[in-house]
Design brief:
By secondary structure, this protein is of the alpha+beta class. It has 4 helices and 10 strands. Strands 1, 4, 5, 6, 7, 8, 9 and 10 form an 8-stranded antiparallel β-sheet that branches. Strands 2-3 form a two-stranded antiparallel sheet. The radius of gyration is 18 Å and the shape is globular. The mean pLDDT is 90.
Length: 230
């Protein structure tokens, strides 16, 4: 996977806010976390990605997640300053249940995004919502795993390109994806049943840990983390 005359990868600022709470919080609580925090900052579209005239960004700068049982709120680029504002919040109100925040920890760092010469390996920490209504029907009609795999790899490449465009990065060369293993999982989005995928893939692309790929990444879907050796 050698890409000649590589352009520089995009360097981004990132903030990872971890919340330690008195009560257990599950992945099903992520929409409630997002809604409650957004209610603190109704005039800041970074927290909810909406303006009166529509979406604020094509790729959310603030993303809400549960990683290994820990509540994490990720801010990328403009989202870094937004995530810092959350330090004023001392509790969460989820489904009419008040949960105290015992500790807040913010890790700031610079990360790289972009095409690279060396293959990187990633795992989906939360279901990847790859399929819309149209390609869901196409996926179901494909009989063999080889054909389904090829379709999902094409979709994954498209998701990475969309993420890159949303963050101001133009991909300078071909992206090569290989899904190593993948399994279907049943999940839901806004109360609607959805088919998601969990598994691992390799790609000649640098993706910062805990960013989401695919649909509804602000709600924690499609969260990836690098695995293995560089």
């Amino acid at each position: 996977m050698l890409i000649r005359k590589l352009k520089k990868t995009l360097r981004l600022s990132m903030a990872e806010l971890s919340l330690k709470t008195l009560a257990f919080i599950s992945k099903e609580d992520v929409p409630a976390i997002r809604g409650y925090i957004a209610s603190y900052f109704p005039n800041d579209p970074l927290f909810h990605n909406h303006l009166k005239r529509g979406l604020f960004y094509s790729y959310p700068r603030v993303q809400y997640k549960i990683v290994n049982g820990v509540t994490k709120i990720i801010g990328i680029s403009e989202g870094v300053s937004a995530v810092k504002k959350i330090s004023i919040i001392e509790k969460l109100n989820l489904w009419n249940k008040v949960i105290s925040i015992l500790h807040k920890d913010v890790l700031e760092r610079e990360v790289l995004l972009g095409i690279c010469e060396k293959t990187k390996f990633y795992v989906f920490l939360s279901p990847w919502l790859a399929l819309n209504e149209k390609n869901y029907e196409k996926y179901q009609k494909l009989g063999s795993w080889a054909k389904r795999k090829a379709l999902l790899e094409k979709i994954l490449i498209g998701n990475i390109i969309s993420m890159s465009k949303g963050l101001g990065y133009t991909v300078p060369g071909p992206i090569e994806v290989n899904i190593l293993k993948l399994r279907e999982v049943n999940t839901s989005l806004k109360g609607n049943p959805m088919l998601g995928f969990l598994g691992e893939f390799e790609v000649n692309f640098e993706i910062p840990d805990y960013l989401g790929i695919g649909k509804s990444v602000s709600r924690g879907f499609g969260t990836v983390k690098k695995i293995g050796m560089d």
